[in-house]
């Protein structure tokens, strides 16, 4: 039987511990027909289920350019994420989706792209980064600015290493003051100040920003000061969701359903929303 809320069955193929409380799962579709037909765009999310425990919402952290599997990265915070930590390679879980809108990749083509992320906020941004890098010649300069509280909180370390070694990517990795160990070679400072220091050119550029609300709050004015237009700064919201498809009314900000009108919004769009988040 299939319906709106029926999940696809997924096999856990790989488990990667990013930090002490953050884990990435690589999931493949158990039904080969779904594996072939499933497609999504960068910025979309899914409802992930552990049978007997419930569902929770995560972005799709892998790139749509890489077919046949998806990845999600999650932090253990409550009921479902705790059960997800118990899954082993070979176990089955579910996903519904993809849902929501996407980052404007078509508009970003031919432009500079600046990615700014904090903590596990790198998960949705990583999807767009790989999408852009897999189509590298369609974009101009690529700058990635990523920060975490401490070295131990940095996620996707192997990819940070990849990006560091690429001549066609400018990477700045920072930790909060006090979060660095004796061997740390990156930057030290909060993300907004590192953005200001890096001063990426804004004249023909788009920015994608994702992280804790406090980071976004202090990064947006820096981007505007550097000259980024509000309709060229994009972020993704994480309002609590249930259905993911505009039926339950859990995710609204005023008249806007974050699950179907978002989760991706420009700074210009956010400015017009009631200040409820
Ligand atoms: C579009 C979208 C994308 C997301 N992407 C990711 C992702 O890639 N990785 C990731 O780790 N998390 C992501 N989240 C947040 C994630 O959905 C919640 O952390 C998760 O649902 C918690 O499930 P749980 O059953 O373990 O926690 P619960 O037992 O339901 O809750 C545990 C605690 O966390 C709080 N909480 C739960 N959900 C949220 C929320 N959305 N915002 C604020 N507080 C919350 C609860 O109030 C409670 O205090 C995303 C959320 C949205 C809406
Ligand atoms: S999550 Fe149900 S309406 Fe948005």
How would you characterize this protein structure?
The protein has a 7-stranded mixed beta sheet, with helices on both faces. The protein has a 6-stranded antiparallel beta sheet with strand order 4-3-6-1-2-5. Helix 5 (157-164) links the parallel strand 8 and strand 9 (170-175). The N and C termini lie far apart (38 Å). It has 277 residues and is α/β, with parallel strands linked by helices. Helix 6 packs parallel to helix 7 (213-226). 25% of the residues lie in helices and 30% in strands. The chain contains 9 helices and 15 strands. It has 2 domains: 8-99, Translation factors (Elongation Factor Tu (Ef-tu), domain 3, Beta Barrel), CATH 2.40.30.10; 105-236, Rossmann fold. It has helices at residues 32-37, 79-85, 105-108, 122-134, 157-164, 191-198, 213-226, 258-261, 267-271, and strands spanning 8-17, 22-29, 45-50, 54-59, 69-75, 92-99, 112-118, 142-148, 170-175, 187-188, 205-210, 233-236, 252-253, 256-257, 264-266. The structure holds flavin-adenine dinucleotide and FE2/S2 (inorganic) cluster. Residues 241-244, 246-251, 257, 259 line the site of FE2/S2 (inorganic) cluster. Flavin-adenine dinucleotide binds at residues 45, 56-59, 73-75, 77-81, 120, 123, 238-241, 263.
């Amino acid at each position: 039987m299939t319906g709106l809320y029926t999940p696809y069955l997924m096999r856990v193929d790989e488990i990667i511990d990013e930090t002490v409380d953050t884990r990435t799962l690589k999931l493949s579709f158990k039904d080969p027909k779904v594996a072939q037909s499933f497609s999504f765009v960068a910025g979309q999310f899914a409802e992930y289920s552990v049978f007997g425990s419930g569902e929770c919402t995560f972005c799709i952290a892998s790139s749509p350019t890489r077919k046949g599997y998806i990845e999600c990265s999650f932090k253990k915070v409550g009921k479902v994420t705790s059960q997800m930590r118990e899954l082993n390679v070979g176990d089955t879980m579910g996903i519904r989706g993809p849902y929501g809108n996407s980052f404007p990749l078509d508009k970003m083509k031919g432009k500079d792209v600046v990615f700014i992320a904090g903590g596990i906020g790198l998960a949705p941004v990583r999807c767009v980064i790989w999408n852009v890098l897999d189509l590298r010649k369609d974009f101009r300069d690529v700058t990635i600015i990523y920060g975490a509280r401490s070295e131990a909180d940095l996620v996707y370390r192997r990819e940070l290493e990849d990006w560091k070694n690429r001549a066609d990517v400018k990477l700045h990795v920072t930790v909060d003051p006090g979060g660095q160990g004796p061997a740390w070679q990156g930057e030290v400072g909060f993300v907004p100040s590192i953005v200001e220091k890096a001063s990426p050119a804004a004249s023909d550029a788009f920015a994608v920003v994702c992280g804790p609300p406090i980071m976004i709050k202090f990064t947006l004015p820096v981007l505007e000061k550097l000259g980024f237009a509000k309709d060229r700064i994009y972020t993704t919201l994480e309002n609590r969701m249930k259905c993911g498809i505009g039926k339950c009314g859990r995710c609204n900000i005023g008249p806007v359903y974050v699950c179907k009108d978002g989760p991706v919004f420009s700074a210009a769009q956010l400015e017009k929303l009631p200040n409820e988040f």
